[in-house]
Fold this sequence. Notes:
- The chain has 455 residues and is mainly alpha-helical.
- The protein has a single domain (39-453), classed as Amino acid/polyamine transporter I.
- The protein is built from 19 helices and no strands.
- The protein is globular and about 60 Å long.
Amino acid sequence: MSESAPSSESIRFPDQATSPAASAAAASGASFRADRMRSYFGPAFVASVAYIDPGNFATNLLGGAQFGYRLLWVLLWSNAMAILIQYLSAKLGIVTGRTLPQNCRAHFSRGWTIALWIAAEISAVATDLAEFLGAAMGLDLLLGPALHAHGYSPTATLMISALIATVAVVAILALDLAGYQWLERGIMAFVGAIGLCYGFEVFLVHPDWHSAFVSTLLPRFDPHAMQASVYAAVGMLGATVMPHVIYLHSALVQPRLLELAPPPKRALPNVLRQYLHFELVDVFVAMNGAWLINSAMIVMAAVALFKGPSAQPTIQDAFHTLGPLLGRGAAVVFAVALLCSGLSSSTVGVMAGQVVIEGFLEVKFPIFLRRFITVLPALVVIGMGWDPLRILIGSQVLLSFSLPAALIPLLLLTARKDVMGEFRSGMQTRIAGWIVAGIILALNAVLLVQVALGS
């Protein structure tokens, strides 16, 4: 008798006595299932790094400093959207055995494939530029004062930080040589470190939990600064769903799929269903963890940095404010969280770039060469002395243009029976997906218009 259809003899009621051997067997089975579930944790945690990257630091600090707890609800709804999109990306990869770029190449015309590849490359380069700059800024906050004391200019200290960050990201990528799970564990460790850092920050600021809870559940803007609060909310949402991680998640699930059914075998439907179940749990846990970290960013900013709609805090402002207000430890922890975010998200950005170029062009591309290529624009920007924060924000705007090129093909492919077979998205999922896409694209359009108008 299979596990999915247990016999009546195997069903136990509370008043039935069970032997010690049977209890031990049940406990052993539960332990085995828990261990197996844990072995499937990883892909969504790697993807979740894109939701707590330096771009999120900037937008969440702005939202909290301008409107306090009021915009916490934006993060709750953004998280619900992220769960749906990331699960669909993973589902496409699991069911088809191909990444999103590979599926685009297989099912769309050559012209559309080239156009999608160009948009994906733009998003990958813009993303990696932003994430790498975030890592350099985090290191600069920690090392800058000591280097300044020895006569180094701000540009020189940022360049030194960037070079150190380059070596660190290469070292993280090298974990993959020991096996994909080692790289996943490394990224998960960074996510855990960011969470601990912000847990510490929230502990120090003693927030008003009642106000935070109400603001999380009750959607509202500031009636006295409607345009500014809408702009902040759009920025927070625009920094949430990133195109590069939509491509990447469909690739992150492939190693376990190959273990389940090595080529030329194809996994049976019941095996795919079990994998999809495990990945759904992975996505739910990882995305909610990212949501809590983002919420902690706003809570910290609402208490420590709040100055009203006129506030325009930068990441450096937050660092220099936290020290005098909460102690040197709070400022250092903030910089460490930014550094962990920058290093991990930069690593993920390089991985996404490799998935894009290999999937769309059907070529093998060394990941370390990809790191070298994508680090050059960041070094040029730093060497020219441009404001890294302005570049960071500009890259988020650029990503708004390329988001449809990842999201729309994902929704189209997961709804096609010839691609997904019996696993095609149901009507409710398709409707929810297009509603999410419409909301994200409309709000990104609002963001672009506001930026273009200089508001």
